[in-house]
Design a protein that fits this description.
Layout: H1 2-28, H2 36-45, H3 51-69, H4 76-81, H5 85-102
Helix pairs in contact: 1-2, 1-3, 1-5, 2-3, 3-5
């Protein structure tokens, strides 16, 4: 049960990061992302989010796809090994929040 909750938490947190990234990329005219992962990377390239954090979250987008679409049978050990991504997801959201609070409205 806990593992299913972790998987669902990953999916929703990563989707939230992607939605926020797509919104900022579009509203700020940062380019045309080729994928959800690319939208996240664009924020790193434009220094809205630390580049290393953006790359980690972009990789997490691929992990999310595996969880949602079951492209591969998900090994529960892989899920547990990716728990460290939570810190990067949190850092990504925090960077966007700081950016938004400093952006002119």
């Amino acid at each position: 049960m806990r593992l299913r909750a972790i998987k669902y938490g990953f999916v929703t947190a990563i989707e939230g990061c992607v939605r926020a990234a797509q919104h900022v990329v579009a509203s700020e005219g940062l380019g045309m992302p080729e994928s959800n992962a690319d939208a996240v990377r664009l924020l790193g390239r434009h220094t809205i989010v630390d580049a290393a954090t953006a790359e980690s979250v972009a990789v997490a987008v691929g992990f999310r796809n595996i969880l949602v679409h079951e492209y591969a049978e998900v090994d529960d050990r892989r899920v547990v090994a990716n728990v460290e991504l939570v810190g990067d997801l949190d850092a990504f959201a925090g960077a966007l929040a700081r950016w938004a609070s400093n952006a002119e409205l």
